[in-house]
């Protein structure tokens, strides 16, 4: 599948955000403000960059290629509250998630589960 990395990241952003929201609800968080605060912790660029750095040694060559393409993509904007390096890493992470989702890869579930575990360790 040959898609532009920013398109993969667009899809990956949605998939990851939905996964995190489902995870938080399954953890019995019910207050909307707390749900929002916890979800932002996982989905902000700095967190995604941290998660990707932890996951990279486990990625196969194809996944590393997707990450490289995502990291090298040139987004039109950068959020005002994110470092450029973190934002590029986060885009690479989202491109990986989008790629795994669109290709129907069984690795998606494993990568998402590991992502949550890494994010939780970062919070402790």
From TrEMBL:
Matches recorded under InterPro entries: Mini3_fam, RNase_III_dom, RNase_III_sf
UniProt GO molecular function: ribonuclease III activity; rRNA binding
Predominant place of localization: cytoplasm
Enzyme active site: 13
GO biological process, one term: rRNA processing
Top-level taxon of the source organism: Bacteria
EC number(s) reported in the record: 3.1.26.-
Pfam families (alphabetical): Ribonuclease_3
The RNase III domain, residue ranges: 2-123
Keyword Ligase: no
GO cellular component, as recorded: cytoplasm
Cofactor section: Mg(2+)
Gene3D superfamilies named among the record's database cross-references: Ribonuclease III domain
Record's keyword terms, sorted: Cytoplasm, Endonuclease, Hydrolase, Magnesium, Nuclease, Ribosome biogenesis, RNA-binding, rRNA processing, rRNA-binding
Role description: Involved in correct processing of both the 5' and 3' ends of 23S rRNA precursor. Processes 30S rRNA precursor transcript even in absence of ribonuclease 3 (Rnc); Rnc processes 30S rRNA into smaller rRNA precursors.
Complex and partners: Homodimer.
Family: Belongs to the MrnC RNase family.
Protein name in the entry: Mini-ribonuclease 3
